[in-house]
Design a protein that fits this description.
mainly beta, 12-stranded parallel sheet, about 210 residues, 35 strands, about 0% helix
């Protein structure tokens, strides 16, 4: 029940399960496991040791590094880059043009908007929605149920608690700590080292200076 398009290259030790569709021009590295019902678009490159769960859909022109784990039901849009050792949990949606750097962990049912850049070592917990064009700096931890609007920039080492809502065009400096249930409005600037404790509401256009 597997369908393999033209000019596909499959490395040694690859396991392709029932009902998989691999479109033309795909390169699959050695030791990859592709679960049942997966659809892999044209021109995708999968590194060695990748594990792809059941029912995953991968768009055209995707590049996936070695030792990546992709859970069941994940949707990966066209032109996405996934670095070495990334873990993408079940039900995640990575929209077109997303860049996920090495060592990132993405929890279940996360939606990452188009053109988002997620830097090295970020942890995005389950249920987070990240808007288009967001930059998430290295080492950031984003709690469950967070909503980040489009055009947000999040600096290095930021920690964001559960249930946070961040409006569009927000800039969050390095080392900021955002407690659970915080609301940050449109166009807010939060400088480096700031602590926003649980339940804080920051209205649109506010500038919060450094600690």
């Amino acid at each position: 029940g597997v369908v393999v398009g033209s000019s596909v290259v499959v490395g040694s030790g690859v396991v392709v399960c029932f009902g998989v569709v691999i479109c033309s021009g795909v390169v699959v590295g050695s030791g990859v496991l592709v679960g049942s019902g997966v659809v892999v678009g044209t021109g995708v490159v999968d590194g060695s040791g990748v594990v792809v769960g059941l029912g995953v859909v991968v768009g055209s022109g995707v590049v996936v590094g070695s030792s990546v784990v992709v859970g069941s039901g994940v949707v990966v849009g066209s032109g996405v880059f996934v670095g070495f050792g990334v873990v993408v949990s079940s039900g995640v949606v990575l929209r077109s043009g997303v860049v996920v750097s090495s060592g990132v962990v993405v929890g279940s049912s996360v939606v990452v908007g188009s053109g988002v850049v997620v830097c090295f070592g970020v942890v995005i917990c389950s249920g987070v929605v990240v808007g288009s064009g967001v930059l998430v700096g290295s080492g950031v931890v984003v709690g469950t149920g967070v909503v980040d609007g489009s055009g947000v920039v999040v600096g290095l080492g930021v920690v964001v608690g559960s249930g946070v809502v961040v409006g569009s065009s927000v800039v969050v400096g390095s080392g900021v700590v955002v407690g659970s249930g915080v609301f940050v409005g449109f166009g807010v600037v939060v400088s480096s080292g700031v602590v926003l404790r649980s339940g804080v509401v920051v209205s649109s256009g506010v500038v919060v200076g450094s600690s």
